[in-house]
Amino acid sequence: MLLIILLLLTMAGSAIARDWRGIVVHHSASPDWTTVEGINRWHKERGWHGIGYHYVIYTDGSVHEGRSTDKVGAHAKGRNSTHIGICLVGYNEITDEQIKALKKLVKELGLPCERHHEECPGSGVDIESLNK
Ligand SMILES: [Zn+2]
């Protein structure tokens, strides 16, 4: 009986794993000292279940996990259940380290990426070059 329950749990677990179709890239439009914890607090204040992005890349190029990729995001209306959300900390001045880290992460995830919208992320991010 216990074995059957364990089997069912394993099956349910694999059904939860998401079938991502792409990545949406954002910028935080906040100071460069913004952290995952800060965004988490800020998104909770909006009434969401904490941070809506799956990954956050700091200005030093370090990659930080936000919401689990097992869960639907809260970052781009209409694409939250199909796209992983990556947020670059900063306004329009995204650092070379961030671009380098973003390229690496996109390659690891193996999914095509797209902008959130015309102004997000800022003009310093060439999305086309990330899909090559
Ligand atoms: Zn955005």
Radius of gyration: 16 Å
What is the share of helical residues? 25-40%
Annotated CATH homologous superfamily: Peptidoglycan recognition protein-like
Examine the coordinates and then state which fold CATH places here, giving the name of the CATH topology.
Answer: Lysozyme-like
Which of globular, elongated, flat, extended, rod-shaped describes the shape?
A: globular
Give the CATH class: Alpha Beta
So how many helices? 4
Beta-strand percent range? 15-25%
Largest sheet: 5 strands, mixed
Which secondary-structure class do the elements indicate?
alpha/beta
Which architecture per CATH?
3-Layer(aba) Sandwich
Question: What are the secondary-structure elements, in order, as H or E?
Answer: HEHEEEHEH
Q: Please report the distance between the alpha carbons of the first and last residues.
A: 50 Å
Report the bound ligands by name, code or SMILES: zinc ion
The number of distinct β-strands equals: 5
Overall mean pLDDT: 89
Strand order of the largest sheet: 3-2-4-1-5
List the helices and strands and how they pair.
Elements (H helix, E strand, L loop, with lengths): L1 H15 L5 E6 L8 H10 L9 E3 L5 E3 L17 E6 L7 H14 L3 E3 L11 H4 L2
Parallel strand pairs: 1-4, 1-5, 2-4
Antiparallel strand pairs: 2-3
Bound molecules: zinc ion.
Zinc ion binds next to loops.
Description:
By secondary structure, the protein is α/β, with parallel strands linked by helices. The protein has one domain: Lysozyme-like. It is 33% helix and 16% strand. It has helices spanning 2-16, 36-45, 96-109, 127-130, and strands at residues 22-27, 55-57, 63-65, 83-88, 113-115. It has a five-stranded mixed sheet with strand order 3-2-4-1-5. The longest helix has 15 residues, at 2-16. The N and C termini lie far apart (50 Å). Residues 11-16 have low confidence and may be disordered. It binds zinc ion. Zinc ion (ZN) binds next to loops.
